[in-house]
Design goal:
The chain contains eight helices and no strands. By secondary structure, the chain is mostly helical. The chain folds into two domains: 25-95, Serine Threonine Protein Phosphatase 5, Tetratricopeptide repeat; 101-141, no CATH class. α2 packs antiparallel against α3 and α3 (47-60) runs antiparallel to α4 (65-77).
Amino acid sequence: MNVQLFSFRALTAVFTILLLFPGCQDAKRKAIDLKMQGIDLNYKRQFDKAIETLHKSLEYDDQDPETYFYIGTSYFGLNQLDSAFEYYSKAIETDSTFGQAYVNRGRMYKERNDRNNACRDWLKAEECGIKSIKEETKFCK
């Protein structure tokens, strides 16, 4: 009898929490929806709209490295290279295992003739599982 009462109370508590805090899931869902819209705009080369939409996504989830990464690629598409670099760096700050951000930032270091930092980023990208940069990293080893 006590086990049933405990189970009922635990179940009631779970449902109460879910009813009182639905906004957590709603915010995540909104962030994902906005991010997907922003990525779509990025691929359509509508970079200004993509940046605006992706920034709205960050209002709901500012810990998503992919959102920062795609803001960076949008700025890169607009040839705003300092902003692109900044957002690739924010993606890395948010998740130090986000390999593609290292790849892109490494390419930007290369364009700045900063081979040491380019190699550091590319080798880190390899550590993170990116296999498509063998051409870049062969000069770093």
